Amino acid sequence: MIKQPETRPISQEQLVAEVKGIYAGLVMVESKCIEVDNAQSSANEGSKLNNDQWQALIALHRTLLHEHHDFFLASQHPSASPALRRLASKYAMPARMWRHGIHSFLELLRHRLPASLEHMLTFIYLAYSMMALLYETVPNFEDTWIECLGDLGRYRMAIEDDDLKDREVWTAVSRHWYSRASDKSPATGRLYHHLAILARPNALQQLFYYTKSLCVPIPFLSARESIMTLFEPHLSGAPTRLADVDAAFVRAHGILFSGRNNDQLASSIQEFLDKLDNHIARTTVRWTESGYYIGIALSCSLLEYGSESNILMRSIKSGRTHDVDISMDDSENAMTQKFFNALDFTARTHTVVFQRFGDENVDPYLHVTLSFLKHLSQFPTAMGHIEEKVPWKLIALMLNTFVTKSASVAKFESDIFPRPEKETHRPIPDDYALRGLIWTEDYYPSDWFTGAKVDDDEKYFEVPSMKEERRERCLWLGARVASSGKWLTYDESAKKFGVPSKYEVEVLNPSTKDSMQHKEGDDGDVEIMDAPVPNK
Q1: Residues 166, 160: contact at Cβ < 8 Å?
Q2: Chain segment 340-371, per-residue pLDDT in tens
Q3: Per the domain annotation, does 146 fall within a domain?
Q4: pLDDT of 43-56, one tens digit each?
C-alpha cells in the first residue's frame, strides 16, 4: 500500500492572508503591464522591438496570467468563506485578467504585424492554455472563460493567411466556444455578432446573425457598424460570389438598413421575388436552412433592426398585452418609410413562399414567421400595423395541409407547448435560430434547451422525425394566433383553419406588387394556383 502524503487543512485566516498576498503581487504586475502596453501603443509605429524585448513582454504578461490563476484558485478554494469567494467578482478580476493580461497585449501585437507574427502565435497559445485551465478549474466564471476562448480562437483564425486548413480549424474552434456562450446567454447580442464575423463567406448566415444581435433583449449596438462590412460590397456594386437571388436579398436589406441607394430598393426586391420560387425549387432541401435565415431577417427588418423608436419594438418591449401605453394616434408618429418598405418586402416574400403547398422545405420559414406573428398577436395595436399585408389566407391553407397529416390533433389544439412523445426531446434547428430573439421569450418551455443533450455540431442537423414535429409546432402556433379569431380562425369540429371575411383574398402573381387583392362582391371562395383541392 502506498502511503498518501499528509495534508493539513488550511484555516480561514491563512486563506485570507494568502489571497491578500497574491492580490498585492498581482496589482504590481498588472500596473507594469498597463504601463508597458500603453507606452508601446503610443510609441512611433516605426520603432521595432527586437526578439528579446518581445520575449520579455510575453514573460511579463505570462506572469500576470499566473498571478490571476493563483488568485482564482485561492479565492475560490472549497474552504473559502462566501466573502472571500465574492472578491473575484467584487474586484472584476475576470475582466481585468482579459483586458490587461491578454487583450491589450494582443492588440499591440496585432498592430505590429507581420513582424510580431511568431510572438503573437506564441502568446495566443499561452493565453488559450491558461483560459482552458481556468475553464476546468474555476467553474464559477465559466461563462467568461468560454467567451474568452472564443475570442482567442478568433484572433488565431484572423492571423492565419498561409494555411487555409488551419484557418478553418480555428474558425470552427472559435465558433464552438461562441455557440457554447450563446447557449448560456441566449439574450446577449454580442455573441451573435461574433458568430456573424465567423460566418463569412455565408452572407445569408451573416445577415441572420447580425440582425439577431440587434433584436435580442441585450442588443449589441456596435453591430450597426459591423454589419456594413457585409452590406458595403452590395451597395457599391462590387462583384460578389453569391447567387443572384441571395445577393438581391442582402442588397435589399442593406438599402433598408442604411438608407442608401433607395432608388435601387424596388428593383432589388423585385429581382429577389422574381427568382425566389425557382430558387427554392432548385435548391430543395438546402433551402430549409436558408428559409429560417430569411424569415428571421425579414422579421428583424419589421423591427427596423432593433430600433428603439420602431412601433413594433415599442409594443414588444412594453410587455403589455393590450398595448395600453401606445394608442394608434401616438404610434403613427413612429411609422417610418423604412417600416413600410420592410413590410412590403416581407409580405410579398410571404406570398411567394406560402404558395408552395406541400413543399416541406419551406416549413422552417413558416415556423419562424408564425413564431413572430404569434407573439405579435398579443399586441393588437402593433398587429394592426401589419395585419392588412399578411397573407393570412395562404397561411390558413398551408396549415390545413398539415392538419391532414397530423398524428395528434388534440396536441396542437391544446394551449400546452407540443412536446414530442419520446422521453428525450431534441430542439429542431430553427429553434436554435429563434432562441434568444426578443419575440421568442415566451415561446419555449424553460427546460426546452437546457434539457436537451445535443452536441454543438449537431444542433443544425436535420433528422427525418423533425419534419413532423415542425408541422405540429406550426399548427400549434397557428391555433394560438387563431384563438382570437381576428386574423386566423380554427373550426374544431371541422378541424380546419380559415380567415375572417376581410382576409378572403385572391392571388394574382406572387412576384408583382399588390399581389394579394381583396375580392369584391363574391361569396368568400378563393382561387389560388396550386392550392390543395379539398376532398369531396
Answers
A1: yes
A2: 999 999 999 999 999 999 899 999 999 999 99
A3: yes
A4: 766 578 999 999 99
Q: Where are the alpha helices (DSSP H) in 445-499?
A: 465-482
Is residue 391 reached through a cis peptide bond, with omega within 30 degrees of 0 on the bond before it?
no
- For residues 131 and 177, give the distance between their C-alpha atoms in angstroms, rounded to a whole number: 12
Q: What whole-number distance in Å separates Cα of residue 194 and Cα of residue 174?
A: 9
pLDDT computed for residue 293 by the predictor: 97
| 191 in any annotated domain | no
- Within a domain: residue 437? no
Domain hosting residue 91, numbered range:
11-39+52-184
Query: Which residues are registered as beta bridge partners of 319?
Result: none
Number of C-beta neighbours around residue 261 at 10 A:
16
CA distance 38 to 49: 15
- Pairing state of beta strands 496-498 and 489-491? antiparallel
Burial class (CB in 10 A: 0-12, 13-18, 19+), 152: buried
In a domain, 104, yes or no: yes
> For the residues 121-133, what does the mean pLDDT come to?
97
Higher pLDDT, 7 or 396: 396
Residue 535 binned pLDDT confidence (cut-offs 50, 70, 90): very low
Integer CA distances (angstroms), 78 to 11, 135, 440, in order = 12, 16, 39
Preceding peptide of 114 cis, ω within 30°:
yes
With the C-alpha atoms ordered 26, 27, 31, 32, is the resulting torsion angle positive or negative? negative
Q: How many domains does the chain have?
A: 1
Provide the pLDDT confidence category of residue 517 given band limits of 50, 70 and 90.
Answer: very low
The pTM (predicted TM-score) of the whole model is: 0.87
Say how far apart CA 216 and CA 214 lie, in whole Å. Answer: 6
As a whole number of angstroms, the distance between CA 507 and CA 118 comes to 63
Strands (E), 53-154: none
Q: Are 71 and 26 in contact (CB under 8 A)?
A: yes
Angstrom distance (rounded) from CA 229 to CA 440: 28
Task: Output Rg (C-alpha) for the chain, integer angstroms.
Answer: 27
pLDDT at position 519, please?
Answer: 45
